[in-house]
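Q: Given only this backbone (94 positions), what sequence would you predict?
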């Protein structure tokens, strides 16, 4: 699924169900160009996550618990390292 389709209700539901952190990940968004398979889905995801972080902060949920990362399908090691880091941070803040 394109990161641009991630709905705010999905994220809020994850936190309500006890998620320590939530990751939204999508095709690379770089200064060199946009690698989105759906043209601009990652641009929409970035805007949505920034808006959602502010909304979370207003309800007392730290915006740092919502992560947005650009990772290509060829970056398995980066993905694994990111998840490990998020897991460690989630346990520390619990």
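A: Predicted residues:
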């Amino acid at each position: 699924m394109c990161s641009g389709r991630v709905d705010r209700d999905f994220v809020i539901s994850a936190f309500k169900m006890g998620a320590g952190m939530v990751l939204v990940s999508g095709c690379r968004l770089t200064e060199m160009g946009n690698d989105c398979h759906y043209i601009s889905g990652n641009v929409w995801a970035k805007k949505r996550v920034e808006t959602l972080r502010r909304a979370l902060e207003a309800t007392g949920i730290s915006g740092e618990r919502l992560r947005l990362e650009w990772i290509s399908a060829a970056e398995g090691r980066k993905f694994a390292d990111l998840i490990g880091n998020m897991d460690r941070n989630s346990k520390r803040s619990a």
